[in-house]
Task: inverse folding
């Protein structure tokens, strides 16, 4: 999907038949009009399945503990993709500091990106932002089969 065609919103989801392949990486990309968080998924034939929404609290997968997030706006990002291979149970995405997986200095409005863990084939991330901004979600599969979910937060 072309970024110009995506709709700016305050809730976004893509449903599908089941779980995606395991997570591989999360990285940032700053633009002049928006901050972007990119979630990379191992080669797949389907676009990632997800739910992104504002919340008062973002909770850890499997535990239910609240994730402390910097900023006023708190987004819960659920990707139906685990941080481990479902067959071998080997970790595919490990971060040294789950409470701060990306450097907030690279962003204009994002204050924190945290990993809330994986449980039963899905992973949760928390994104703390300065305020309640509109966002859009783009999902795609690259030519090599790598799945991407991109969350763009507009600068206001």
Result:
């Amino acid at each position: 999907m072309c970024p110009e065609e995506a709709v700016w919103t305050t809730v976004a989801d893509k449903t599908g038949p089941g779980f995606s392949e395991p997570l591989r990486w999360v990285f940032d990309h700053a633009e002049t009009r928006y901050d972007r968080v990119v979630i990379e998924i191992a080669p797949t034939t389907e676009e990632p399945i997800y739910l992104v929404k504002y919340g008062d609290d973002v909770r850890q997968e499997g535990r239910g503990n609240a994730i402390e997030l910097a900023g006023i706006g708190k987004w819960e990002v659920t990707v139906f993709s685990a941080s481990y291979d479902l067959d071998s149970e080997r970790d595919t995405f490990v971060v040294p500091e789950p409470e701060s997986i990306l450097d907030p200095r690279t962003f204009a409005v994002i204050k924190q990106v945290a990993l809330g863990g994986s449980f039963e084939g899905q992973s949760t991330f928390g994104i703390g932002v300065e305020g309640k901004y509109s966002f859009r979600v783009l999902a795609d599969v690259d030519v090599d089969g790598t799945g991407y979910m991109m969350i763009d937060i507009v600068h206001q």
About this structure: DSSP finds no helices and nine strands in the chain.
